[in-house]
Amino acid sequence: MKTSISLVLATAVSLAFASAAFAAPPTKTGTTAKGSVLTDAKGMTLYTFDKDSEGKSACNGPCATNWPVLKADASDKAEGGYTIISRDDGSKQWAYKGKPLYTFAKDQKAGDITGDGFLNGAWHLAQP
Predict the structure, then answer these.
(1) Three-state SS across the chain?
(2) Rounded mean pLDDT of 47-60?
(3) pLDDT per residue as tens digits for the range 10-38
(4) What's the CA gap between 92 and 86, in Å, rounded?
(5) Is 70 exposed, middle or buried (0-12, 13-18, 19+ CB in 10 A)?
(6) Distances in Å between the alpha carbon of 38 and those of 27, 88, 89?
(7) Where are the domains of the chain?
(8) CA neighbor of 68 nearest in space, from 42, 36, 30, 98
């Protein structure tokens, strides 16, 4: 009996440590009128910006007010195509396949894609 209880406890502990080692991705996948997109935790559509260079955001100041960044915390770990970049103000932002991720202030609800094609086509849906 002691052996089976010990085995159960050992298994539970190892599963707890294993799940802690794998962080959940910073995005989810949602469906819009234009197909699958990456979303934030609230289901809001994420976008990429053509003026960004890999690992560097060009959207600061008023731009970042209209296009809020997908913020990363200091404790977040990047994996699986996701990276964390440093912004001009020192804060951290998630990027997917090298492209920084943003929401759009004018999107009102999950599934809105009003930012797609904005600024002469410079803003795009972030797609998985």
Answers:
(1) CHHHHHHHHHHHHHHHHHHHHCCCCCCEEEEECCEEEEECCCCCECEEECCCECCECCCCCHHHHHCCECEECCCCCCCCCEEEEECCCCCEEEEECCEECECCCCCCCCCCCCCCCHHHHCEEECCC
(2) 95
(3) 444 444 444 444 568 899 999 999 999 99
(4) 5
(5) buried
(6) 6, 24, 25
(7) 25-125
(8) 42
